[in-house]
Amino acid sequence: MRHFLLFSFLLIFALRLPVHAGKTIHITQEFAFNPHPDKHQLITHDILQTIARGSGKLRAYTSYQYRLGLHVIIDQTERDIKRVSVYIKDGHSWGDTRYRDFDLAHLLMPDLANITLEIVDKEGMSLHKKEWEGLDVVSIGERWLETEFRYSGDTDMLHISFPRYRFYYDHRSSHRFTLWREALSAYYEAGAQLSEVKALISGMDTCKVQSLLLEEFRLCRAERIMGEIRHASFHRVLLSGQNDPDSILPKFDHLYMQTALLRQAYNRSLAGIDSLYYLEGIRESENQSPAKAIEMFNAAISYNPFHIPSHLALARADLAGQNINQALHRLIPVFTIMNPTGDDKYRLERVTREVLDNYFAITDSLRSDGRYTESLKLLQQVKEFCDHTHPYFDCPGELHEYTAASHLGVYRSFLTVSRRALRNDNIRLAETYTRSALSYQADHDEYVSDNKEALEKMFMVFSRSRVLADLFELLEDSLAYRRNIHPAREIATGFPELYTHVVHSGNHDLLATAVLNYAAVGMPEKSTELLHMLKNAGVEPAVVAYHQRVAGTKTADFYKNQNKADFSPSQYFRESGMEGPWFETFRKYLLEAWQ
To answer: How are beta strands 112-120 and 126-136 bridged, if at all?
Structure first.
């Protein structure tokens, strides 16, 4: 009887086997795969092809055997009546069942069976017959295909036969074969993966900060591979109750411990990667490699924008490179955003002091060269820094001192030019620069406390204009006279504080000169007031006789020019308090000029 089923049987066990009470009969059947176009064969072809590759055999010679354990038990139940029980137990496979180092016999066990069992006596008469269709072939150690009958004859002459049988797979085999094929592939792939992991983590060193991230990427890849191996299917399927021929598990455990220790070390290093880059930068600085040091400090900040030591180190590098403006600006966010405390705050203040000292040293040098505007521009940067950081940093008092000195330098530079122009009788230029000095002082009175020097210079311009006007008046050059007296009048009227300056100076010569100046420009009230001051100061009238003469004459001219027909000299003397002998010269020349 030939069946084109899942397997074609090479040995058909339709034999009559003698049964002896209490004994077990083992029935051995060998199967060889014979391709046939049905779905079960296609499934089986895949797994047997896998076995052929693993065992190094040709596909055509791959075969395996399936053995069943047939058990017969005879019990005496009544007088001359016996119960005959038959069942199958402990089926298993062997033969070409190995894939490399794994025995897949349990995988090749059939799922179902169609079997007819018949028991006949010695004459061949059928005593008991039973058929099973789609019977589950159960696992090792469990019974299946059980039957029994009662018999009163000689049991030693009974024969068991299997006139019809078929073992085959059902849909469960597809899942089983797929699962195991994946597990086998994953197991041997794990060996190659573990070799890759070993190569990846070999020679890793957390002390090399430049390669730290690259090595951490390698470690991440190694961890990913270890995760794939850890959850590979062979853990659940392949190694249950089997050996571990390639020692995957101990290798995995060893490498898993190594990667775990490396992960701890790299996590610690990565958590402090900013400090590692900073220390590398310090080493490069000590090795006289400033460019590499700056690269390391910048790397530290790229990983931690708030790494204060690296910011301070870069500020010092800027300072060494004469880039003090960048150094100062680099410190602003450290104060305003990072707000350091403890040692960081102490180091920040020390670096800031170094930067500011450089600013002050440079401004000193600029001032000594007379470059006051440049020094002020430089100090303005310090002021802006202080404006940004004032809640966190006390700006040094030297800033005001250096700024005041530079402003004073600008102020006096105007006066220096004015002095040269006055020496050359360039009165207009002298006046222009003196005016600039006065204006500059008014705009920067916080730094230039008074305008005394400028007022003194303006009084000199005033006096020189009046002297030249007097000279051209004597020479009867009316045009030149007007060209000089007009600016003098503008100074007198435009700078009322000039009169106050003279009054408060206490200088008799200055007061006497002012008498002449104000008399010449037509301000008799001021000239007479100044004469009273000289009198009250105890100045002898003979000392200022000329001044009284000019003042008296100019006063008369003033009132004449004003067409004061009702002007009364005696009344004027009386009201102005100039009746005493000290003012005799003044009265004399006023009367003469009035007449």
So the answer is: antiparallel
